[in-house]
Specification:
Layout lengths: L4 H11 L5 H15 L9 H13 L14 H18 L11 E4 L2 E4 L3 H11 L1
Antiparallel strand pairs: 1-2
Length: 125
């Protein structure tokens, strides 16, 4: 995958200590789309996820949801957390609250997407 020049550029964003959250998300989504085999012109993770789901339902087999690309909301949080981890490994100190983490009981916990919180609420009812 890394033989493609634009994927190398996508990965470089994660090594750059001055990357903005928007750059991390933009290039990270481009990388995820490529990883899941999306056509080059595809830019929307949610539309591609839906297309993959529809394609898999045509086979009359049970769809393996874990094999679908993440939702854009989940990908945003995931990509921010990955950037934070890479920066920490490279020796840079960032505020984890700006990069997909929250402090709970003196421990870092990942920020969850609205969909995940909704399902947790449904379980509690």
């Amino acid at each position: 995958m890394f033989e493609k020049q634009d994927l190398v550029q996508c990965a470089e964003v994660f090594k750059n200590s001055n990357s903005t959250p928007q750059e991390v998300i933009t290039y990270g989504i481009r990388f995820l789309l490529s990883m899941y085999g999306a056509p080059k012109k595809t830019t929307c993770l949610d539309k591609f996820r839906y297309a993959c789901f529809v394609k898999n339902t045509r086979n009359e087999k049970q769809v393996q949801l874990a094999c679908l690309p993440p939702t854009s909301a989940a990908a945003h949080q995931y990509l921010l957390r990955i950037y934070y981890k890479v920066q920490v490994w490279l020796g840079y100190q960032l505020d984890p609250k700006d990069w997909g983490w929250k402090l709970v009981d003196n421990a870092l916990k990942p920020v969850q997407t609205a969909q995940h919180n909704f399902f947790q609420l449904q379980k509690g009812m």
